[in-house]
Design goal:
By secondary structure, the protein is of the alpha+beta class. The chain has 5 helices and 12 strands. The longest helix is centred in the middle third of the chain and has 18 residues.
Length: 201
Amino acid sequence: MEENLINDKKSLKIVTGKTADWQEIAKDCVCFANTRGGIIAIGIEDEKSRPDSTQKIPSDLPQKIIKRISELTINVGTTAKIITVENGGQYIELKVLPSISTIASTTDGKYYYRISDNCNPLPPDELMRLLTDKPSYIWETKVVRSVPKTNIDDAKIQSFKKNIQESNRISNFIKTKNTVVIYLPKIVKSTQIIICYEHPA
């Protein structure tokens, strides 16, 4: 795994024993949440691409990590699971979800943002910019459902047309038009229905 905007590697020592640095892993999670989300591979050293073949992960450690991060951060969502690679070694894949419409922080009020493979503090002016930009992230990451035109129930389309013509929200001027015409492309996505009215002959 190459470290970049959405991927990072951490030694298993960061979440185990006396070397555990929960504040550091919490900071990294805030970074990812405020950027685009990402994956932290816990158990792979910086200079390596996979864990040692003898490395085994305690089964309860992923949930312990999730619990500890939730105690040290605000508006950060995570999932964690144990991954076994070809050589038999194991690591934890910690997935940090993007904070879509809120700003993530540590519980002591610190804000961070990921640039390339680095975690950086958010100064006040950048924090305001992030607050402004957040709503646009929703549209960038939103999954839009699509269905073929042939799969659409014609009876529902006709019912939809009837409801439009009878709706109190439609002006009387529009209701004087002759016919409701609904245009459907071959592949229909949400908000991709165009409604037209034909003029009387």
